[in-house]
Each structure stands twice: as structure tokens, then as C-alpha cells.
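agent> step 3/5: call structure_predict on target 'NAD(P)-dependent dehydrogenase, short-chain alcohol dehydrogenase family' (Pseudomonas graminis).
agent> reason: downstream docking stage needs a structural representation; sequence fetched in step 2, passing through unchanged.
tool.input:
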Amino acid sequence: MRLIPELNSEAHVLIAGASRGIGLALCAALLARDDVAQVWAVARAASTSPELAALAAQYGDRLKPVDCDARNEQSLEALVSDDLAGCEHLHLVISALGILHQDGAKAEKGLAQLTLASLQASFATNTFAPILLLKHLLPLLRKHPATFAALSARVGSIGDNRLGGWYSYRASKAALNQLLHTASIELKRLNPASTVLSIHPGTTDTELSRPFQGNVPDGQLFEPAFSADRILEVVGAHGPADSGTFWDWNDKPIVW
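tool.output (status=ok):
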């Protein structure tokens, strides 16, 4: 399967949140493909990540670790002007940015646990960072086939919310979905060969999900490598006609 629909050349790819979990697994899966020429692995401490260093030792200059905090616009400006200076076009960008109970965010069980700090932390990483990343990378997505995909979450679906709780996380992912859907409309005008996708990767064995894995049904907790492969399958299955849509790891549409 092609990395993204309509692409007939080797791909330039950028992964944000690349130093651990699903982002790291995506880097490994992409580098293992013959049709990927370059992977920029973006994270706050990408240059000191031993896992990314191990991939760089295996794949050489095809992997470029880049330090960048996507919550900071100056950092994003430097990413584009300096680290991506020689890149004319990105064919695929995947944002694996997300927190649930880190950096001040909390998985609230009820309104009494809700705080402004938790809301701000959740939105900063889950909502603002991915859309600011897209804003700054827009000049590199205006030609040829280009897909921007961000990892969302089924719990961000308003129509599928039957259990409540997790106020900050749910709301930040719902807001991300709205921003991505809105951006897909603008990108379609700028580049008819562009695609914007929200993807729910399933419950994956990462730091984000670890405290909550006891409630996951048997067979529904995925290894990062499995989730990465499924994400790439979804990306490869959906082109411009599906831009602005929301999919789960098993390529089933999710209600907004």
C-alpha cells in the first residue's frame, strides 16, 4: 500500500511527539519502508533520546531528530526556518502529541476535581500544539499530495460520550477535532491534493494509558508497534475525498 494515496515518489515525513510511545513506533515503522526518504523526528528532547539515537544508528541520515516544543510558536518557527530549511515539501505529518495525566493534566472523575490548571495543560498539548504545528508547516503542505494526521481519541467524540468524566481530556480532543475539520476546509482550497485526518489509535501500552490499563478488555491493549502499523494503514486508505474525517485504528468512522 502507498504511504498516502496518489503519492508516486519517495516521501518526506515529519512525526511530532516522536521520542516515545506511538510517535517513536511510527518513526521505526516509517524508516523500515522503502518509500520513505526522510523522517524528521520532532520532540522536546529528541536530540538526547536514546531510542531515537538507536534508530539513527540503524538508519543514518534518513532520520533527523529535532528538538522542538510544539506548544511554543518561537520553537515552531525555528523548526521551519532552520531544521526544515532544505525541505521543499512534506508528504506526511503525524502529530502524536497528547497528555492525559502528565504536565499538570488530570483524568478527572467528576466536576469537583476539575481545575483551570488541568484544563490549560490538557488544551496546551492536546489541542493547541497540533494545530499550531499545522499552521507553521502549512507552507510545506501546499504542493503535491500531502496528509496531516493527528492522534485524537474516541472519548473526544461528543456523540459517543456515555460515561462522562475525563473533562479536560475529552474537551481538548473534541476541540482538536473541530480545529482539524476546519483546517481541512482551508487546505482543500490551498491544495486539492491535501488530506487532514483525526485518528483514534486505540488504547496503547504507553505512559499515557498506564494508570488506566486495568479497565481495558482483553485483547484491546495494543503494543505501540501495532498501533503505529494501524495508523499508517488508515493514513494510506484515505485521501482528499475523506479530508476532515475521524477514524479509529480499525478504519471505522467515529461520530463527532
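agent> step 4/5: record observation. The longest strand covers residues 36-43.
agent> proceeding.
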